[in-house]
Amino acid sequence: MKVYYCNLEVTLEVIGGKWKGLVLYYLIKGPKRTSELKRLVHSITQKMLIQTLRELEASGLISRKMFNQVPPKVEYSTTELGQSLEPILRSLCEWGDDYAEQTFAEGEVQILISDQ
Known about the structure:
Blueprint (H helix, E strand, L loop, with lengths): L6 H9 L4 H9 L3 E2 H7 L5 H13 L3 E6 L5 E6 L1 H4 L2 H18 L13
Antiparallel strand pairs: 1-3, 2-3
């Protein structure tokens, strides 16, 4: 039996880490293939992307759809449970924008907004 001492621990275990939030952010916008995610999530290695996708799938936040074709095609999308994170991720984006404005000197940081 796993013991948690607060609800935030559960949340961070499921969506915490460097990459899960970013992968979910892009998948909430619509289904993506692995290569699309690799291009969108800058600096992630192929190995880490696959591991992240597997963990999110195991958590029930995303689903994997295989198409029976040559070459093989795999597409990832959010489940209903994963889609329920959209308002939370949007709030985190807004918080990050406010934080950047308040703490970074002008020209110190650039946030490139990708609406893919």
